[in-house]
Design a protein that fits this description.
about 525 residues, 3-stranded antiparallel beta sheet, alpha/beta
Length: about 525
C-alpha cells in the first residue's frame, strides 16, 4: 500500500511546473505586464500560482513521507539477517510510491539510528545490533560537589531552563503549538535560504577561517541596519541573539551583582543572568514600556550597573517603548553610570499596519551607554544562528575578548549564507510577506480570543512580534491550565517563567507564528476554551 500523503500528486519527486523567476521567499506574484485575468498571460500566471501551491503542499508532505517510510522499514528489519542487503532504492520507490529523495532520507535516518549501514554504490544493509549500554554508576557524589560550589557564591549559578524549553520543545503530533518561539516552516524562506547556502558554499574561501569579529561585509550590513552612525568596527558577529546576551551580561556585570530587567521579560535572558551568577531585579513595565520613574528608583536602591530591555515589541507584552521614555531610559542609565542592553529581537517581525518604526536606542546614543543585540534568526529560521553585538568605547574590547574565548568565531559558511540572503532581492519581499501574514494571524487570534475567551484580559494588541499576552482571572489557576490545555491538544506558554519575582497575576502567552495558519489558530483557541471549561467544571 502507498504511504499516506504520498504518490504522484504529493511527492516532490514528480515534476511540477514552477516559474524559474519566482521569488524563492514569497512565491510567484502577478505581474502587471501579464495582462488581465482571462487572457493567455493571465492564465499562465494562474497556472504558475497553482503549481506553487502544489509544490508547497508537496514539500510539507515530503517531511511526513520520510518519517512514515522510515517507520515502515524499521518494522521490517527483523526479516533480514545481520549484514543482509535491503531492497534497492529503486525497489523501495516502486513499492512505497515515493520519490528517490524520500528513500534516501529515510535510509539516512535509519543509518543515523545505527539500524542500517549504507555503502555507496552497493546499497543498504542491516547493521550489527548495538552493544548494550553500560550500567549507570553512582553519581550521587555530584550533588555534594555542585552544592559546595554554591556555598561560596553570592548568587547560585543553578540554571532553570524550563522557560526556554517551553518554546524549543516540539509538541506531540496533533497538538497545536501556541507556545512556539519561531516562524512556522510555511513562513520561513526555506528556498531562499537553500539557494543562499548553495551560493555561499561556492564562494572563494567559504570554508576558511573567518575574522574573529566576523566578515567585514556582514558587520557593515548590521551596522547600517542599527543606524545612528554605528560602524562596522563597532559590531561583532555572534551565533544568534542568545549567545550575544550571554556575552553582554558576562562582560558588563560581575557575579553576585544585581541586573535590572523588565517585568515581565524574556525567560531566556533571566536564565542567562542567573547562570552568570547575577541577581535579576524586576522593574515593572506597562503598555508604553518600562516606567522611567521606577527604573531610576531601582538604580538608586540596588546600585546596579546594567539594565536589559526590549524597547520594540517586548517579549511577552508586545509593548513598544514610548517616544518620551526612550531618551529618559538612556539618560537615567547614564546618570547611574550603567549600561543599557538593548535586545532588538523583533524589528524584522513588524506587522503590516505598524507604521514607521522608531530608531534603535543605540542609534541615538553617542556616549556608548547602549550595548545593542540583534539577530537574523527570528525572521528566518531557528537554524540561521547569526546575530550581532554593537557597542562603543572600551566595553567593546571586553565583549570581543569574552566572545573569542567562548566560541572563537561564527562558522564562515553560515556568515556567507547570511550575506547572500540579505543581499538578494528575495529578502525584502520575504519581510513584506511575513509582515502581512503576522498581521493577519494576529487579527485572527485576537478575534478568536474575544469570541471564545472573553474572561481573559488582553491589555495590549501588539503591532509587531508573534504573540499575545493574556491575563487570567483569579479563578483560573495558571499552574493547572497549562497541563489541562495540553491534554486537550493545545500547548500554551505559562506566564510564571517571565517574572523574576512574584507575578501579580496568572498569565499565558499565545504565539500565532508557529502554527500552520488561521484555521489552526481558531481551532487552538476553541480547544483552549474546552480546557478552561473542563478545569472550572
Amino acid at each position: 500500500m502507498p504511504l499516506r500523503g504520498t504518490g504522484a500528486a504529493a511527492d516532490p519527486g514528480v515534476g511540477l511546473l514552477v516559474d524559474p523567476t519566482a521569488d524563492p521567499a514569497t512565491g510567484p506574484t502577478a505581474d502587471p505586464a501579464c495582462g488581465p485575468v482571462g487572457d493567455p498571460a493571465g492564465a499562465l500566471v494562474t497556472a504558475i500560482v497553482l503549481d506553487w501551491v502544489a509544490l508547497s503542499c508537496a514539500l510539507m508532505s515530503e517531511r511526513s513521507s520520510v518519517t512514515e517510510l522510515a517507520k515502515s522499514l524499521k518494522a521490517e528489519l527483523n526479516r533480514y539477517s545481520i549484514g543482509e542487503k535491503l531492497p534497492s532504492s529503486r525497489a523501495l520507490v516502486e513499492r512505497y510510491h515515493v520519490s528517490p529523495v524520500t528513500v534516501t532520507r529515510a535510509l539516512a535516518q535509519l543509518a543515523a539510528e545505527g539500524l542500517v549501514v549504507t555503502r555507496p554504490g552497493a546499497g543498504a544493509y542491516r547493521a550489527e545490533p548495538r552493544v548494550a549500554a553500560p550500567a549507570i554508576g553512582d553519581t550521587s557524589w555530584q550533588q555534594l560537589a555542585l552544592s559546595a560550589d554554591g556555598a561560596t557564591e553570592l548568587v547560585p549559578r543553578a540554571v532553570d531552563a524550563s522557560g526556554v524549553l517551553v518554546t524549543l520543545s516540539a509538541p506531540q503530533p496533533g497538538v497545536i503549538e501556541f507556545n512556539g518561539g519561531y516562524l512556522h516552516p510555511s513562513l520561513q524562506p526555506e528556498r531562499a535560504l537553500a539557494a543562499a547556502l548553495a551560493r555561499a558554499g561556492r564562494r572563494p574561501g567559504a570554508w576558511g577561517r573567518p575574522p574573529t569579529d566576523g566578515l567585514p561585509e556582514l558587520r557593515e550590513w548590521f551596522a547600517r541596519a542599527i543606524g545612528g552612525g554605528v560602524t562596522a568596527a563597532e559590531v561583532l558577529i555572534t551565533a544568534g541573539g542568545q549567545p550575544a546576551l550571554t556575552t553582554a551580561l558576562r562582560a558588563l556585570a560581575p557575579p553576585g551583582t544585581p541586573v535590572l530587567v523588565e517585568s515581565p521579560t524574556y525567560p531566556g535572558m533571566l536564565a542567562v543572568a542567573r547562570a552568570a551568577g547575577l541577581r535579576p531585579v524586576p522593574v515593572p513595565n506597562d503598555a508604553d514600556g518600562v516606567r522611567p520613574e521606577l527604573l531610576e528608583a531601582a538604580f538608586r536602591a540596588t546600585g546596579a550597573r546594567v539594565f536589559v530591555c526590549q524597547p520594540l515589541f517586548q517579549n511577552p507584552t508586545g509593548a513598544a517603548l514610548a517616544p518620551e521614555r526612550r531618551a529618559a531610559v538612556v539618560r537615567i542609565a547614564r546618570a547611574a553610570g550603567a549600561f543599557v542592553v538593548e535586545d532588538d529581537f523583533a524589528r524584522r517581525l513588524v506587522h503590516e499596519d505598524a507604521g514607521p518604526l522608531p530608531a534603535t536606542l543605540a542609534a541615538d546614543d553617542p556616549d556608548g551607554v547602549v550595548v545593542h543585540v540583534c539577530s537574523l534568526t527570528k525572521p528566518t529560521s531557528p537554524s540561521l544562528r547569526v546575530g550581532a553585538l554593537a557597542a562603543r568605547g572600551p566595553v567593546l574590547e571586553r565583549l570581543r575578548a569574552i566572545q573569542v574565548v567562548d566560541s572563537f568565531f561564527v562558522a564562515r559558511p553560515l556568515q556567507e549564507a547570511a550575506l547572500e540572503l540579505v543581499g538578494a532581492p528575495a529578502w525584502n519581499r520575504h519581510l513584506r510577506s511575513v509582515a502581512a501574514e503576522l498581521k493577519s494571524r494576529r487579527s485572527t487570534m485576537t478575534g478568536a480570543v474575544a469570541r471564545h475567551l472573553p474572561e481573559l484580559a488582553l491589555p495590549h494588541v501588539p503591532s509587531g512580534g508573534y504573540h499575545l499576552w493574556l491575563r487570567l482571572p483569579d479563578t483560573l489557576p495558571e499552574a493547572a491550565l497549562v497541563p489541562t490545555a495540553l491534554r486537550h491538544g493545545v500547548a500554551v506558554a505559562p506566564g510564571r517563567p517571565y517574572f523574576c519575582a512574584e507575578p501579580p497575576a496568572g498569565h499565558i502567552r499565545l504565539s500565532f507564528a508557529g502554527v500552520a495558519g488561521p484555521t489552526e489558530i481558531v481551532e487552538g483557541v476553541r480547544r483552549l476554551r474546552t480546557a478552561i471549561d473542563a478545569l472550572l467544571g
